[in-house]
Amino acid sequence: MAYTVVGQSVSRVDAVAKVTGKAKYTDDFSERDMLIGKVLHSPYAHAIVKSIDVSKAKALPGVEAVLTYKDLPEIRYATAMPGVIEAIATDEVSVAELKYGTAGHPFSLDSSHRDKEDRHILTQKARFVGDNIAAVVATDALIAAKALKLIEVEYEVLEALTSTEAALKEGAPLIHDDCERNILASGGYEIGNIEEAFKDSDHVIEGEYETSIVQHCHLENQVSHAYVDSDRRIVIMTSTQIPHIVRRIVAQSLGISWGRVRVIKPYVGGGFGNKQDVTIEPLNAAMSLAVGGRPVKLELSREEAMIDTRTRHAFKFKIKTGINQDGKINGIHISAVSNTGAYASHGHSIASSGGGKFRYLYPTKALKYDPITVYTNLPVAGAMRGYGTPQIFFAFESHIEDIAKKLNMDPIEIRKKNLVEVGFVEPLSKNKIMSCAIRECIDKGRELIKWDAKKALYKKQSGDKRRGLGMACFSYASGTYPVALELAGVRIVMNQDGSVQLQLGATEIGQGSDTVFAQMVAEILGLPMYMVHVISTQDTDITPFDTGSYASRQTYVTGMAVEKAALEIKQKVLGFCHSMTDTPAHLLDLKDQWIVFKESGEKVQALEVVAMQSYYDRVHAQPITSDVSNNARINAIPFGVTFAEVEVDIKTGKIKILEIYNVHDSGKIVNPLLAEGQVHGGVSMAIGYALSEQLLFDEATGKPLNNNLLDYKLPTIMDTPKIGAAFVEKEDPTGPFGVKSLGEPPIVSPAPAIRNAVLDATNVAFNRIPMTPQRVFEKLKEAGTI
Amino acid sequence: MFKRIAFTVNGKAYNFEVDVRESLLDVLRNHLGFTGAKQGCSVGECGACSVLIDGTPYDTCIYLAVWADGKEIRTIEGVAAKNGELSDVQKAFVEEGAVQCGFCTPGLVLTTTAMAESGKEFTQDEVKRELSGHLCRCTGYQNILKAAEKSLEGHVCTCVDSPHYKG
Q: Which of A18, A143, A221, A676 is most worth mutating to test chain B (most B CB atoms within 10 A of its CB)?
């Protein structure tokens, strides 16, 4: 379809605020006499607090409160808050009942579908280095830091289980008492009969693959401030992707009713899934309650944020594939061990979701997935861009490359032979593929990188610097349906001049959602962009309900609600014009701030005149608004491919990316400039994942070794090659304007594509990322290449 | 311990006492309200807190406020014209899609501004080196580089035989 605003590279609606420093983030707001909160972290990975003495810390001038696990949940009865006691302490709630889950999922009325509740605000048992033992509230940061040092804790140190092997071994101590063998959860799926599929295959090929723990490293660390308002409710301003979910989880963590919490989310300095989790907010609320509701700020340092928020799950995979001589795959069996760290957070959902999104790419007669998610005494793993897919696609797209090599098949042809077609109904989710351009994406990528010419050129290299080409594909999803609720809320109010306010529960965290939603509204209402005013801040007291920014859901799921709300406004405008002009609404349309005849385009009435009448007509006045919710019970599957060319320096083990292209089938692209930006960012994060990034821990103690931006190797501008982004636009019939998701997909396939290019260059298969120079050097030496 | 210091921020003179332990970032953000400078790491790794001190970009999280005595400071709030018109560098960042979450943006705009105002010529590698003190997790730096090059139009040298070219 031809659109005028959708599909255009309009500038971000918040760009001017951000280049002038006017965009305000959580820490740019302050309350008068704001106190500072700080956390005492456990120095041990696994230990029990035998005794804790806070008297010296409490005696330090400037210290307003010191909290330990003993004070929670009693903090709810804080005597310093007259009036609040009777308001919130209605029932006796035991400590055990105040365990809560932190994952930013919509609440489920089905208790068996809820996240594991395994966390207290402060703990008596440390489960990772950095766990929250006690907290201090003081008049300034220096006093708070000094007070932390005055807290005397006696620990009984337990064995630190720093790997899944250690956690699973017979007789290992339990990190959580209710989880046998430290297994949080297990269970995947089986489609067809895998053993029969292997029997029917000409070849059965096996491989093992491993990914590492990495961290989001959004530039803005977790920060919030909390106070109790005059209506005795807790107000929290926080840097989050999920304000409505934060409200619920803070209330659950304190055992108070949900309506007593108000959450405000201003501009956010990146999230990448880490802020799809509730990390500091419950403690921040408790801190304020401990000082009579006065405002308290809780801000994590970079060193804290890198270990005491969330990380990406490290996975170990074993894959067995049955394949025929012609390249057709009969069956795939994937076993996976996922390291979830000390607490559940998103836990087994990561393994499940990765395995779920994988099912769309290569439908086979039989597919078996056996994941287990294991607790260890390492930082908590949670949601991170891709949510389990970068791991499983690294494994499988490496594996299929190994198969192609073993069977002497073309790596592109073997994939094409097995790729999904439109009309495929995935047997477990029942999601149907309504659009699919993966083949066109592959063809485009192949052309962009000049695959065929270079492949011929790079045969039989023997020098110190060897070049190679690799590619890898992926499938994803647009939101979580049918696994979880996909509800989005949107409100539009038309002003007297015909401009509108657009208010969303969906959150802008940098990805550009506010801009694409405004484009959708401008398109439907025939308005220029400057007449669509997006209210970027979410406030749970005011903002419509939407579960937030995750699962690449917003453009697709919230987009449906935006479309619905804008169409309602349009209908009301045309209806009002009908009543003013006696021209039937169905003959009318909106264009360039005019109500026009749909067929001829002839002007009927200026939009501004209708808008003014809607406010001030003495008989018919009724301002034009819409306030809608949309429950998206459908999903659209995006696809894509990475093509990479590398040069491996055999003598140093250094891998240089010469060219890299991501080609995406994300349906209609609403804003090409912003879409390219998403691809650039995802690919660069994936390059770090493939080549340099890994959170390191001392194996014996679980102490982090590189939780800072100097030792953790985040790519700089010097490390990042030119990244090519391309799209094959096939409109999906289910999405608003034909869109499918794009936020997370760019990170999924670059790592295996780079790995496959290194294999092409060196003839050595690297089955573990990151491929740091040291690991590459050692492996090349082992392989006899050096 | 407190010490009296005097400096200008965006052309306006300030003269007041600061705690000698405070960073320039603390003073700019918490006392003077220049919240455009962001704190991303507190130890000079990420560049989000950059401002121009006598025209040169510095990480203010590791620059003591007392060192700013007598200096001219320029923050992101002082880059656009007083009537709100964006500078060429800001326009380039907007137009090239160099902004996503925006947390690294003020620092990058300021360092690019320093380069543009220096009148020097740069190769693309030199532009990258100048910007390499700023970490960005959203953009993969692609459009930031484009915006910087656009800002330096006529001053980015691509010819191999240039004295700036270090290949």
A: A18
